[in-house]
Every structure is written in structure tokens, then in C-alpha cells.
Write a structure and sequence with these properties.
Order of helices and strands of chain B: EEEEEEHEHEHEHEHEHEHEHEHEHHHEEE
Order of helices and strands of chain C: HEHEHHEHEHEHEEHEHHEHH
Chains: A alpha/beta, B alpha/beta, C alpha/beta
Shape of chain B: globular
Largest sheet of chain B: 8 strands, mixed
Structural class of chain B: alpha/beta
Structural class of chain C: alpha/beta
Strand content of chain B: 15-25%
Oligomer: heterotrimer
Radius of gyration of chain B: 20 Å
Number of strands of chain C: 9
Helix content of chain C: 25-40%
Strand order of the largest sheet of chain C: 7-6-5-8-9
Distance between the termini of chain B: 22 Å
Chain lengths: ~170, ~425, ~325
């Protein structure tokens, strides 16, 4: 029986409530393009964080360049604060193999040395290929074989989780 | 030895004859049928025409044997149905001495394939300064005098050379090119050269030089044959000059009625030619000019170049294309595109060329030398290095399929080439 | 005619030989990727590990310090290994043909060849002969193309003017010999700039230039009217005092960019130059150093653009 997908909108206040305990004066948030940035924008507003929101594209740190090349136009990484000494909240939409987060951490360390990094994801679908774990996950989602879990944003800004064909 | 060529489509451009029939050869000449022939060739399904006469084919001997040899290029000639060819004087050293001319003729004769007519240098070493001993060279066998692709820049020397040649009635074959204007260029000065960033050779490098030549012809009465027209404007000038009764003729390289600057593509050095391939308008005018007789004949301008000299950036590559084996199919392609009768197409590479060369070959009539080509005008073949006998595999048509395949070539009544 | 040698069977960029013939989408991909790399060049650690383990061979048959240096910086910022080969023309004539040189380097596991050559078309010849995993980037061939320069010029224009669809661009000077001009013209027409002008004396404007989609002006003042972008081309000293131009002074009088002439362009016009500048010949110092000039940013963008080109072709 196929499990129903959780309501993305409902997960956001739940995550925000969990994260409240983590906030320090050194806290800053970075979302991973593209879905992670959507989630981070919402969380950043809900938590009313002081440091401006950062957005990161991991295109230049991926481990599959040799096979895939640069497939998509990379978005520009913008980190409008000093990484040095920060308690960073790294935000992504779906946690799967862990390779994206590995690349993101490598890229982050090229900006400076944070005091700590906590991984925040909207949905954890398991299937880890690297020793990576989320400190905060909105929901654990079982994804049937041959499907991909995607975050979608409607014109009015509403977020929703959907299944698509693909690996 | 007598030979009967039976049942072919006999085309004699000089007389206009085009009918199924027989050709009888006796003692090296075309003859009326007399008795039984010692040998018979079945020519059914084939065209029987005079052997092709090519006014410009480089044999690379003496001096450039690494590019090609007399033997390989003579093989190429007869495989292409060419029974007479004139070779330009730009050998190494140039044909400016009777000894060289004599040696060339002997070697060619010994190979017993096509007839070779050397064109002597007009000036010593082709340097454009001193006249060659034209009478001595003429006795040694030179049929005309030329500067090959090295035009004389000193117009006074050109004037005197034409005067001298006119004194004795020696024909002078000249490229119309102003070397000052063309010296840096490598491609036609048009859209393609601008696009590809290649130094350009404007069409007026030809017309300015041609105007000079025509004026000098008017002044000296020299018989001049203008070689390798490349521009529409030059065709117009030749047409007018002939109408005015000047003793001038001209030819075009067979590649130039098919190709234009567009064929350079992404710097295809096989299209690096001298003169350059010009615009499509020029190409079309050359094709028309050849059809209406403003241009007297087509030549191969055969120039074997080894691949190392072509696998270079365009401007550094050596100029020239192999052509002896492509003269017939490319002439046929030109003729059929213009819907010309086959006799007229063939005239441009047989009887019309013979007239300029001043030889008896190039026609099928009793008493004429038995120089013949038997070919299938419809048989297609792919232009590949292996299919070419010339040592020069450099052709813009590599990989193309062309129609027109030689089955046998006969020179002085002897079968010098046969394809089984 | 043969298929575009720059694109592989999937329509992806495998060699960058010329801007001409590249679809708009690929130009935009390069510019967008370059924008991300600008971000990298602005931070402390200017390297990304993208091309770690890849080798970039700079094959410069024509000497150049600036271009070669920016390619070297770009490759190193991608964590690639860089080998510089300055092959003087004389050693070429000593015997080794162009293709032999490339074949020898190929045997040393090259991934990217960055080639600058005095003969137009040389990179095409090389691209026809490299192995499938090897990529050729044209760093300038004769007067034909300098595509990375064209791309960084396009990037600069996009940075300051945003929309190509409304621009009037003038390219001034020795267009005849300029590969920079040709590349920029192709880029602008592909990206939809409605009005591209070339300005110069007849001796410096090539015969077929109108066919590239530009308007020709011999009067600089007329040509500068209403321009959003003015690109001044470098004038090579060898050209002066010959049959092309009488002198540098006279050239400056007729075609040099001064504040007075620049005032004819739009008030917010930008002034560009591929460098190095001949002050007092193409452009006077007040303009070169003035508020309209974006000549220095061009250089910064150049590194990001070259990083973008290398990372795109090497991955295809």
C-alpha cells in the first residue's frame, strides 16, 4: 500500500518549533538550491533570524562531474555573512543519498570555519550512501522504487511534496 | 595494328556526330573500315569519344617527385580518359631550358601513355625579368609559353615578352592576376573570408591584370590564352574581347564551375586553390561562360599535393587539387546540370582544347590520331583515395559520388588503359 | 557541409572554437555559469574542486601573457593541473607539424587544449584530430575568432545593461584584423542586439562585414550617436605608417575616443576595450580611466568566463 505523502506546509511550523531551541546569537541559515532555498526562506521568516539568509549551489562540488559534466546552469552561491564561527543551519528539501550534503559541507568550508553545522530537511527518504544524518527532519517518507521525491512550489508560494518518475 | 571499336555511341564534338556506330583504327589513326580488324572492342553501352585534352596538368617531374611522379600521374591521366595533356612550366627547376623539356618529352614518350605537351617558361626561372630562348624551347617541343601561377609584375617585361612571342607567333598562356593586390590573400575577398578571418583576394586582382593583358594583346598582336578564369567580371571581359576580334582564348578549371567560397566550410584545405574559389555568382557566370563559349574549354588544373601539406591551417596549406581523374565526371556533371547535349559538353574537353593546343587529336575523323576514350556516362563511383591512381589524393570531392567512369583509353591506336 | 564541430552528438559543447554557430542556449549557459563563478572569485577560497585531476595544456603558438595568465588562473581555480607550452614559431618551422605537436601532448593525458595560433582555423584542424575525451578551447586564431573574449565582453554588457534586445553597440577601429570584433559581432547578433555598428576607415573594414549583420560607419561621430556600448579595438603598431593608416596621430584624430565624442553616445553608455590599450591612439586617458569605462571589470569577468567555458566543455 502506498503511503500518503505528508503535507509540506504542515511540516514547516513543526520544524520551526523544533529549531527554536537551537537558535544562538551566532546562528545563520543556508538553503541549498533550489528546494532547500524555498524551505529555508519559510523557516528563516518563521524563526525571524537576524543574519540574512544564505543560498548555496553545490554544482562545483558534486562528485559526479566526470560522468555528468555540468548539467544545469548553476545558480549563484550567495552567503551574505561571515561563515567563521557560526552555528549554521544547512537546509535542504529532501535528504536521500547524502551526496548533496557532503558537497555542501565541502563548499561551506571553503568560505570559512563554522562553529557547528546542523542539517535540517523537510523530508528524509532514507537510502543513505554516505555517513550523513539530519539533526531535524520534518518527516520520514518511504519512496517506491523508480520514483523520485520532489518539492514543488505553486505560483502562490504553497509548497507540496510530490512523487515523480526517475531514479 | 588494326582495331575495331564496335557498337558504341560515337560522339565527335567537332563534327557534331552523335550516333551508334563503329570506329576503325589502323596504324595509329582513325580510318575507314578496311578488311578485318586484328582486335575488336565491344563498346555497346559506352560512349566512344575523342580522348580528353587537358591544357593544365602538373606531373611534378622534374623536381617534386615526393609529391608525384611522371609514372603515377600518367597512369592517372589515362585512367581519367585524358590522352593529351599540357604541363605548365612550374617544375623544379622550371622548364626554361631545352634540356629539361627534351628530358620530359622523352620520359613521357617512354611511358607510352598520354601525349605530353610541355609549356615552356616565358621568362628565365619564371622570375619575370629575362626572356627565355623561346625559339630554342619551341624546337625542343614547347607548344606555348607561360608563367604558370607566377604572374609577371613588371608590366614592361610583360609587354616585351608578348612582343617577342608575337614576332614568331608563339602562343602565350597567362594567368590574369595582379600579384601586388593578391600577395597576402588566401581566399576570395567576400563574405566567407570575412567570416573565417582569412586574408582576401578581391576579384579585381583578376580583372585589373586582365585589362592589362588585353591592352597588350591589342598593341602587340600576340596570341594569348588566358588561364583559369575565376570571376564573373573576367568572363564578361573575355566575351567582349572576342567580340572585338582579339586573338584571345581562355579556360576555366573544372572545379570552378562547381565550387564556390561556401565550400570552404570549416577551413577545408582541399578547397585551398589558386585562383581562389569565388562567390556563387562568379561560379554561375563561369558555368554559363563555359556553356556559351565565352570560355573555350575546361581544364583539370591537376596539382597533386601530399596530405601533410594539406593538414595545415588553411593559410599555410599548399594550394591545388588533384584533377586528372575527375575532369571527365566533373565535365559531365556540369553539362548535365545545364542540360547540354553530350557533344557540346565533351567539346569543351576535347575539340575546343585541341584547337587551342594546335593538335590534330580531339576529333574522330579519318586521318586523325586514334586517341579515344570509351566511358560509361552513367556509372557512378565514389571519389576515395584508393580509387585514384594519382599520388595526389587531395580533392574537394573526396567522399562524393560522381557519374562517368572510363572503361578504356586508347592513344595512337594502342589501348593504354582498360578497366575490367 | 559538415556538422558543427563544436557540438557533440547531443548538441552539447565539446569544443569552443568560435561564437559563430553556437545556439543562443549555449551562450546563455556559459554566461549563467560564469555568473556563479564570479561568486567564487569574490570569496576568500577562490578554488572549487570541480576539475581536480584534469590537465589543461596551454598551447600558445602566438605569444601572449595576459590571455595565457587568465586561462592559467581560471584552470587553477578549478583545481586543474596546468601546463604551459609557448611554442615559438621558429621551433615549429624546425620541423614538428602542428598535428604532431598535438599528438605528442595527447599522449601525455591532456583533457583540455587551450590554443592560440596565428593562422585562422588552426583550432578547427586540431579539434578534428584530438581524441574524444579531449577538448579544444580557442584562445585566438589569426583574425578569425577569440570566443572567450567575446563571451566576457557579452558578460560585461549583460552585467551593466541587462537586456540585449534593446542595445545599440559600436565597435571601433581595426575590424579587418580583429578576432575580438568578429566574436563580439556573432555573440551580439545571436543574443538579439538589434543594432550593431562597426566604425573605422575603409582600409580597416573587411569586405564581407555587412553580411555578418552590422552597419558600417566611416564617420565616428555619426556612428556613436545613441550608443549604449562603445567597444574600442586595439590598434596594432605594425599597422601604422603603412598603406592602411598614415599615422597614429591621424587615427586618433578621426577615430580616437575622447570625452567629446563619447558625449554623442547615451548618457549611461559603457566603454569597453579588450586590452592592452594604446592610450592616445584608440582612447584617451580621461575616458579610459573615467566613469563610463568598464575596462577593469572586463578582466575580472574574464576569469569567471574562462572557468565556465572550461568546466562546461570538459564535462561533456
Amino acid at each position: 500500500m502506498r503511503a500518503k505523502l505528508p503535507d509540506a506546509e504542515g511540516l514547516l511550523p513543526k520544524l520551526a518549533a523544533e529549531l527554536k531551541g537551537r537558535i544562538t546569537p551566532a546562528t545563520a541559515m543556508i538553503g541549498l538550491h533550489t528546494g532547500g532555498v524555498w524551505v529555508a526562506e519559510r523557516l528563516h521568516a518563521l524563526l525571524a533570524l537576524k543574519a540574512p539568509l544564505g543560498a548555496m549551489d553545490i554544482a562545483f562540488y558534486r562528485d559526479d562531474y566526470a560522468k555528468q559534466g555540468l548539467k544545469h546552469d548553476p545558480k549563484r552561491t550567495k552567503i551574505p555573512f561571515e561563515v567563521e564561527g557560526r552555528d549554521l543551519l544547512l537546509v535542504d528539501d529532501v535528504l536521500y543519498t547524502g551526496r548533496t550534503v557532503r558537497a555542501a559541507m565541502n563548499e561551506l568550508f571553503d568560505y570559512g570555519r563554522p562553529r557547528s553545522i546542523a542539517l535540517v530537511v523537510l523530508a528524509d527518504r532514507g537510502g543513505r550512501e554516505l555517513p550523513i544524518a539530519a539533526q531535524h527532519a520534518g518527516a520520514v517518507v518511504e519512496v517506491p522504487a523508480g520514483k523520485r521525491l520532489r518539492l514543488k512550489r505553486a505560483d502562490d508560494g504553497r509548497l507540496s511534496l510530490e512523487l515523480e518518475d526517475g531514479g | 595494328m588494326s582495331l575495331l571499336i564496335k557498337g558504341g555511341r560515337v560522339i565527335d564534338p567537332a563534327s557534331g556526330r552523335d550516333e551508334i556506330g563503329d570506329v576503325f583504327v589502323d596504324k595509329g589513326r582513325i580510318a575507314e573500315k578496311k578488311g578485318k580488324a586484328e582486335e575488336t572492342i565491344d563498346a555497346r553501352g559506352l560512349v566512344v569519344a575523342p580522348g580528353l585534352i587537358d591544357l593544365a596538368a602538373r606531373l611534378r617531374e622534374p623536381g617534386q617527385e615526393y609529391k608525384a611522379t611522371l609514372a603515377s600521374e600518367m597512369d592517372a591521366a589515362v585512367a581519367g580518359g585524358v590522352t593529351s595533356l599540357a604541363c605548365p612550366p612550374d617544375t623544379h627547376p622550371p622548364l626554361d631550358e631545352p634540356g629539361l623539356v627534351d628530358m620530359l618529352r622523352r620520359r613521357a614518350k617512354a611511358l607510352a601513355r598520354a601525349r605530353v605537351y610541355p609549356v615552356g617558361a616565358l621568362t628565365v626561372k619564371l622570375a619575370g625579368e629575362r626572356l627565355t630562348e623561346m625559339s630554342v624551347l619551341s624546337e625542343a617541343g614547347c607548344v606555348a609559353f607561360s608563367q604558370a601561377n607566377v604572374p609577371i609584375t613588371d608590366t614592361q617585361v610583360l609587354w616585351r615578352a608578348l612582343q617577342y612571342a608575337a614576332t614568331f607567333g608563339y602562343p602565350v598562356w597567362l594567368r590574369a592576376e595582379d600579384k601586388w593586390l593578391s600577395r597576402e590573400g588566401v581566399a576570395h575577398d567576400g563574405d566567407m573570408a570575412t567570416r573565417l578571418g582569412l586574408a582576401g583576394i578581391p576579384a579585381f586582382t583578376e580583372t585589373i591584370a586582365l585589362a592589362t593583358i588585353l591592352q597588350l594583346v591589342r598593341a602587340t598582336g600576340a596570341r594569348v590564352h588566358v588561364c583559369r578564369l575565376s570571376s564573373a567580371a573576367a568572363v564578361g571581359m573575355m566575351r567582349e574581347a572576342k567580340q572585338q576580334g582579339l586573338p584571345v582564348t581562355c579556360d576555366v578549371g573544372i572545379h570552378y564551375v562547381h565550387l564556390s567560397e561556401m565550400d570552404l566550410g570549416y577551413y577545408d584545405a582541399h578547397c585551398r586553390l589558386d585562383p581562389p574559389l569565388r562567390s556563387q555568382r562568379d561560379r554561375d557566370a563561369l558555368a554559363s561562360g563555359l556553356a556559351d563559349g565565352s570560355i573555350d574549354c575546361a581544364v583539370s588544373d591537376h596539382a597533386p599535393v601530399d596530405e601533410d601539406q594539406k593538414q595545415l591551417p588553411f593559410a599555410e596549406a599548399e594550394t591545388g587539387a588533384t584533377g586528372l581523374e575527375l575532369l571527365l565526371p566533373l565535365a559531365l556533371k556540369w553539362g548535365s546540370a545545364r542540360k547540354l547535349p553530350l557533344a557540346r559538353t565533351l567539346a569543351r574537353v576535347t575539340s575546343d582544347a585541341a584547337r587551342i593546343l594546335g593538335v590534330q587529336s580531339g576529333r574522330i575523323a579519318p586521318g586523325a590520331p586514334a586517341d579515344l576514350v570509351l566511358f560509361d556516362p552513367d556509372e557512378a563511383w565514389r571519389v576515395m583515395p584508393a580509387a585514384l591512381r594519382s599520388q595526389g589524393k587531395n580533392s574537394p570531392f573526396l567522399g562524393y559520388e560522381l557519374a562517368g567512369r572510363v572503361r578504356a583509353t586508347i592513344v595512337a591506336g594502342n589501348v593504354v588503359y582498360e578497366r575490367k | 557541409m559538415a556538422a558543427n564541430p563544436q557540438l557533440n552528438a547531443h548538441g552539447e559543447l565539446q569544443h569552443l572554437l568560435s561564437i559563430e554557430g553556437l545556439p543562443r542556449g549555449i551562450l546563455e549557459q556559459i554566461l549563467n555559469t560564469a555568473e556563479s563563478f564570479v561568486g567564487v572569485t569574490e570569496r576568500e577560497v577562490k578554488k572549487v574542486p570541480l576539475m581536480r585531476g584534469k590537465s589543461v595544456f596551454n598551447l600558445f603558438f602566438e605569444p601572449s601573457t595576459r590571455t595565457r595568465t587568465t586561462f592559467e588562473i581560471a584552470a587553477k581555480r578549478l583545481s586543474a593541473d596546468v601546463i604551459n607550452l609557448n611554442i615559438a614559431v621558429s621551433s615549429q618551422t624546425k620541423g614538428e607539424s602542428l598535428l604532431d605537436t598535438v599528438a605528442n601532448l595527447s599522449a601525455m593525458q591532456a583533457d583540455v587544449f587551450v590554443v592560440r595560433h596565428a593562422s585562422s582555423g588552426a583550432p578547427y584542424l586540431i579539434a578534428r584530430h584530438v581524441k574524444p575525451h579531449e577538448h579544444v578551447i580557442n584562445a585566438g586564431d589569426g583574425r578569425h575568432a577569440h570566443p572567450t573574449q567575446g563571451l566576457l565582453d557579452l558578460y560585461t554588457i549583460r552585467h551593466y545593461k541587462k537586456d540585449f534586445g534593446a542595445l545599440t553597440v559600436a565597435i571601433v577601429g581595426d575590424v579587418l584584423h580583429s578576432r575580438v570584433a568578429r566574436s563580439l559581432i556573432h555573440g551580439l547578433t545571436t543574443l538579439g542586439a538589434p543594432e550593431v555598428r562597426v566604425i573605422g576607415p575603409q582600409t580597416l573594414i573587411p569586405a564581407g562585414v555587412a553580411a555578418l549583420g552590422v552597419h558600417v560607419f566611416h564617420d565616428m561621430r555619426a556612428g556613436l550617436k545613441g550608443c549604449d556600448v562603445v567597444m574600442m579595438l586595439r590598434l596594432q603598431n605594425e599597422r601604422m605608417a603603412g598603406p592602411l593608416l598614415p599615422s597614429a596621430q591621424e587615427f586618433f584624430m578621426n577615430y580616437g575616443l575622447t570625452a567629446e565624442k563619447l558625449a554623442l553616445a547615451k548618457a549611461d553608455a559603457i566603454v569597453m576595450h579588450p586590452g592592452p590599450m594604446n592610450r592616445g591612439v584608440e582612447i584617451d586617458s580621461p575616458v579610459a580611466d573615467g566613469p563610463h569605462s568598464v575596462i577593469l571589470p572586463q578582466v575580472t569577468f574574464g576569469i569567471a568566463v574562462r572557468m565556465a567555458v572550461m568546466s562546461i566543455v570538459a564535462g561533456n
